[in-house]
Amino acid sequence: MSQESTVAGVSSGAAPHQSIARITVRTRGPGLVDVTARVADALREGRAGDGLLTLFVRHTSASLTIQENASPEVRDDLVDALDRLAPRDAGWRHDLEGPDDMPAHVKTMLTGVSLSIPVIAGAPTLGTWQGIYLVEHRDRPHEREIVTHFIGAAI
């Protein structure tokens, strides 16, 4: 029996193409930074066709999310909601880097550090109103790194 299988016209018998990139994001403090275009650039530069993209942010006080990209008020409301869920004055024991330190860790745990996004014809298959965002949870500006890993077919 053959080891190769086909699902919806995609063969799994061939070795997949992979590409890895690093995206550096400079933040200004708390908020969502749209990285959708930079992720699309990484896919294009990595010769991505159809496959799966994994994004991973290498920090414990920043996270990744897919959110609405039409109304800026949504991003502000999300930051406010996270502040209500993990307030500074909750009596945290860990405060080595200041009063925003532990709340930032909690917010990262709630929102997550990785995303998986299907890719079709070299583009992330986002909905009409979706964008990919790095979420900064600390008060001061930071330089954050997102690692992208695409696996699938090459163009």
Question: What report would you give on this structure?
Answer:
Strand 1 and strand 2 (10-11) form a beta hairpin. The chain has helices spanning 36-45, 72-85, 101-111, and strands at residues 6-7, 10-11, 17-26, 31-34, 48-57, 62-68, 114-120, 123-124, 130-136, 143-154. The two termini are 30 Å apart. It has three helices and ten strands. It has one domain (31-154): YjbQ-like (Jelly Rolls, Sandwich). The protein is elongated. Strands 3-10-5-7-8 form a five-stranded antiparallel beta sheet, covered by helices on one side. The longest helix is centred in the middle third of the chain and has 14 residues, at 72-85. 26% of the residues are buried. With 155 residues, it is an alpha+beta fold.
List the helices and strands and how they pair.
Elements: E1 6-7, E2 10-11, E3 17-26, E4 31-34, H1 36-45, E5 48-57, E6 62-68, H2 72-85, H3 101-111, E7 114-120, E8 123-124, E9 130-136, E10 143-154
Antiparallel strand pairs: 1-2, 3-10, 4-9, 5-7, 5-10, 6-9, 7-8
What would you say about this model in short?
The protein has one domain (31-154): Jelly Rolls, CATH 2.60.120. 23% of the residues lie in helices and 41% in strands. The protein has 3 helices and 10 strands.
- The secondary-structure class comes to alpha+beta
Q: What's the CATH first level?
A: Mainly Beta
Distance between the termini: 30 Å
Report strand %.
Answer: 35-45%
- What's the SSE pattern? EEEEHEEHHEEEE
Order of strands across the main sheet? 3-10-5-7-8
- Let me know the largest β-sheet: 5 strands, antiparallel
Number of helices: 3
CATH topology term: Jelly Rolls
Name the CATH homologous superfamily.
YjbQ-like
**Segments where pLDDT lies below 50 for 5+ residues?**
1-7
CATH architecture: Sandwich
Question: What is the number of independent domains?
Answer: 1
> How many beta-strand segments?
10
* Rg from Cα: 18 Å
Helix content: 10-25%
